[in-house]
Amino acid sequence: MLRVRMMSSGLEVASLSAEDFEDGTETSGGISVRRLKVYLSTLTGQPRFRQRLLQSGSILHDDTQLTLPMDLSLVLLSLCTPEAEKQSEIHRAIVDDDGAAMDSLLQHPFDPNLPVVEDVPCLCLAAEHGSLKSGQLLFEAKADVGGGATSWMPPLHSASRRGHGDFVRWLLESRADVGQTFTDGAARITTTALHVACARGHLDVLQALIDAGANVNMLPTGSSSLRPMMIACAGGQIEAARLLLQARAEVDCSSADGTTPLLCACERKKLDMVDFLLAAGVDMEKATFSDLFPLAVASILGHDEIVRSLVAAGANIARRWRSPDGMLPLHIACSSGHQETARVLIQAQADLNVKASGSTPLDMANAFGHHDVAAVIMEAMADLPRPKRRRTKGPP
């Protein structure tokens, strides 16, 4: 029999035969000290790195093979705080994904949730570099798979941002929360790992997160937060958007202020994404709560090719912004000084004489000093057919 007792109290921790041990570990190949420690971790709740097994007062090394019968004493070590030099070694081992060095360093043992660089915990650092061997050892040492209490993004976010697919899948298998959120203090935007993967266009990671049950329509809390589809569209990540649609993401979803995927693409000047969304049947007239609609946004920013695509798809060039007497897209382009955008709208038969708050497009171009735009308007007006005068009969 193999008996293990706590050295401090004499309390028996385990008593088993070789057959019992093989059944308990579901592995074969003899009993080594390391394998025994892994087994004991299921009984004590403490990782093997904190365990020391002694026989007759001597510490046994992990690769020592045990021969039954045998009586062993178990000591559980307290966690220590590594000095600066040791922290540098930990950092180097994680970045290089040196499994042997990491295993050795964890034997001291230190808290695996320790930040080794600024406020970045060890597992977050491993995720950032895709250091899978180091990550698995840290997790075995009881590192928090969610990253713990830190201002740094969680491991799943870090691995997703960098496109480390193998690390992401391992985290998910290790029960990382696929819906965990992180708020960037500087940007004040709350995201999930899915949002991050969409922004970077990491399709392998995106698929893994979707397969793990990530909510493709999730809108995190916060006034500045966006849905995954909006993130993909703002970044021009067409294949990510396609994957989201296949996973039943809503093409006409909106944020807290009414922003839509199409508005995101228009604002960021992502022409190919605009064309993709139009082909997917997006509602090109859906506006924000302040009545910003896609054609207005493209006209404000002077994205003439996007204006051309929207108009060709049937966008309403006679739609007014904000009020019944509000500006039309042509007024917006003229007041913003976008000559080519104005030309595109004129070619689409925009009304040159319609007024907004008492002003025609030409009035607005002149009022804001955009004389090049005014010249385009006047040239177009000159080409308009003049109404025929009625002939009046003279005196007999």
From TrEMBL:
Q: Coiled-coil segments, which residues? A: none
Q: Start-end of the ANK repeats?
A: 151-178, 189-221, 257-289, 325-357
List UniProt keywords, sorted A-Z: ANK repeat, Repeat
Starting at the broadest rank, the lineage of the source organism is:
Eukaryota, Sar, Alveolata, Dinophyceae, Suessiales
Q: Where is the Ubiquitin-like domain?
A: 32-67
Q: Which Gene3D superfamilies match?
A: Ankyrin repeat-containing domain
Native source organism of the sequence = Symbiodinium natans
Per its UniProt entry, which superkingdom is the organism in?
Eukaryota
What SMART domains does the annotation carry? ANK
Cleavable signal peptide: none
Please give the SUPFAM superfamilies that the UniProt record associates with this protein.
Ankyrin repeat (SSF48403)
Give the matching PANTHER family. Answer: ANK_REP_REGION DOMAIN-CONTAINING PROTEIN, ANKYRIN REPEAT, PH AND SEC7 DOMAIN CONTAINING PROTEIN SECG-RELATED
What's the protein here called? ANK1 protein
Pfam families, per database record: Ank_2, Ank_4
